[in-house]
Specification:
Distance between the termini: 14 Å
Shape: globular
Number of helices: 18
Radius of gyration: 22 Å
Largest sheet: 8 strands, mixed
Strand order of the largest sheet: 6-8-7-14-15-11-9-10
Helix content: 25-40%
Structural class: alpha+beta
Length: 533
């Protein structure tokens, strides 16, 4: 138990020893009223929300330097189990943390993240830190310029001390590569944390960082949040700048990034409140447009659970979730019903399987001009396209057609997508949020088989891997919609389960608000066994 009257030196000594830190004695009344402070069984600050940690810094209950050293200590003691934070700049972070403390002593507050230590996904550029994209070819690449999203966080006072692991070029739903190796799920190290923001979610779940930013073009924020039991938000398309520093594989125009269809940057956190905190900071157009363009989203449609008009889509005849996922979702519905929530059985007039296929076609087309170094996917696809039979609708055949399609072919896909978007808009005239699965399963065993050749056991049958983890993520992605993932329970094997909360286009704060209310109902984040202190 830490006494309020102890000296800073005594506090630091106990703090770095990893002792149990009591909420009531560590933080003042403003922090004690926060979400995590209500749980008497929480031990270390690694379980706290970013919002709570920033409040503690600003109220001078803890220094930015002290908090950073706490995360440094946790990294040293715990990260070897999961390999989530794979590159660090503790020296540079300590210097910035000290400046943050000095500024606060003068009454200066840098912004809404003043002094918060955090990490960033490997493939997002942070000046002076490695950005490897999981490729040995770029293991020595150090950007000189921050991505727009990183600069926004720094301008808000964040202290970025590390980078988190991804799959090679972010092209997998697991997180392993030849630069940093494999990242494990802290709830069960024999399981994957998901991908491609797997290092981000694992680091948060293990209490190794205060906040994270990932990206999503195929569920890469939402799947890891679901697998690791944390919160994640895929923003509406094109409201968070994806522009960054140089791309090391480009021979020309390396400083001129181009917007990609579908892809978004977004936050992961241990609390839904943190998602809003981060979104308030990172929403904005590319930096070169900010002299004339601003983005201001509307507030949430509702503020209380009973007020929300809630749609349900919990099952599907073609892509059903497994029994464990269904049970968690049904328990959530039961708990919400007890809170007075009235559900609507109405579903949007869209087909899940068709959205899944359309997302694959659009994503492949979007990335078809980007050649991974040393790979010649396009040239190979061109050679194979001539041999395809019209009746061949396999995943491989669809990939080849999308990779080599004409502009006319893309226009047909885009027209179908536009109709789907309008159907969603019609749906949200009567519904505020739709609740649905994130994936059909909870976290699974590591499998380094190439994703296009990967299969997985599902309800006793061997199924195509992507058809098991991918379909439900496609709904929001194809339609450019915001989608928030919130943890709702555990399987019998103690693996986390999340729910996907899809909201109307450009109304990101509506699903985030619903996630915040779910969090209040379900209780606050608690760490996996072995990562409590």
């Amino acid at each position: 138990m830490i006494d309020k009257t102890m000296t800073r030196r005594q506090f630091n000594k106990l703090f770095m020893a990893g002792m149990l830190i009591s909420t009531e004695s560590l933080l003042n009344s403003s922090l004690a009223a926060s979400s995590f402070a209500k749980s008497s069984d929480i031990g270390g600050l690694g379980s706290y929300s970013a919002t709570s940690l920033v409040k503690a810094i600003k109220s001078k209950q803890i220094g930015a330097t002290e908090l950073l050293r706490y995360f440094m200590d946790r990294h040293k003691r715990l990260d070897s189990r999961i390999n989530a934070v794979v590159a660090t700049d503790f020296e540079g972070a300590l210097k910035r943390a000290q400046k943050a403390d000095e500024a606060l002593s003068r009454g200066e507050i840098w912004g809404s993240l003043h002094g918060l230590p955090m990490t960033i996904k490997d493939n997002i550029e942070v000046a002076g830190m490695p950005t490897t994209y999981g490729s040995p070819r770029f293991s020595g690449y150090i950007p000189e310029q921050n991505a727009d999203v990183v600069q926004s966080l720094l301008d808000a006072g964040a202290i970025i001390f590390g980078k988190t692991n991804i799959p090679l070029f972010g092209k997998d739903t697991q997180s392993f590569n030849d630069v940093y190796g494999q990242t494990n799920n802290p709830w069960d190290i024999s399981k994957t944390p998901g991908g491609s923001s797997g290092g981000s979610a694992a680091a948060l779940a293990a209490g190794l960082t205060g906040l994270e930013i990932g990206n999503d073009i195929g569920g890469s924020i939402r799947l890891p949040a679901h697998f690791c039991g944390v919160y994640g938000h895929k923003p509406s398309y094109n409201i968070v700048s994806m522009h960054g520093g140089k791309k090391p594989w480009k021979k020309t125009h390396t400083n001129y990034p181009v917007d990609l269809d579908l892809a978004v940057d977004g936050p992961l956190a241990r609390s839904a409140e943190d998602l809003k905190l981060a979104m308030d900071i990172i929403i904005g157009p590319p930096s070169y447009q900010r002299k004339a363009i601003k983005i201001k989203l509307p507030g949430p449609r509702k503020t209380k659970l009973k007020e929300f008009r809630v749609g349900l889509w919990l099952d599907d005849s073609v892509n059903p979730p497994d029994k464990d996922i269904r049970n968690c979702l049904q328990k959530m519905v039961s708990d919400l019903t007890k809170e007075g929530v009235i559900f609507k059985t109405k579903q949007p007039d869209v087909d899940l399987k068709r959205c899944h296929l359309l997302r694959g076609d659009l994503a492949t087309s979007t990335l078809s001009h980007i050649r991974s170094p040393g790979h010649y996917e396009y040239e190979w696809a061109v050679s194979q396209a001539k041999t395809l039979k019209n009746e061949d609708q396999s995943h491989a055949a669809r990939w080849i057609r999308a990779m080599t399609g004409t502009h006319r072919d893309w226009n047909k896909l885009n027209e179908e997508r536009a109709i789907i978007r309008q159907k969603w808009d019609d749906y949200f005239q009567d519904i505020d949020v739709l609740l649905c699965p994130v994936a059909r399963i909870a976290a699974h065993n590591h499998d380094h088989t190439k994703i296009e050749k990967r299969f997985i056991q599902f309800d006793g049958k061997l199924e195509n891997y992507w058809d098991v983890v991918g379909p439900w993520n496609s709904l929001a992605l194809v339609a450019y919609l915001p989608a928030t993932v919130a943890p709702i329970g555990f399987t019998p094997n103690n693996l986390p389960v999340g729910v996907q909360i899809i909201g109307p286009y450009l109304e990101d704060y509506t699903p985030i608000q619903f996630a915040m209310l779910l969090e209040r109902m379900n209780g606050n984040y608690k760490p996996p066994q072995g990562f409590e202190f």
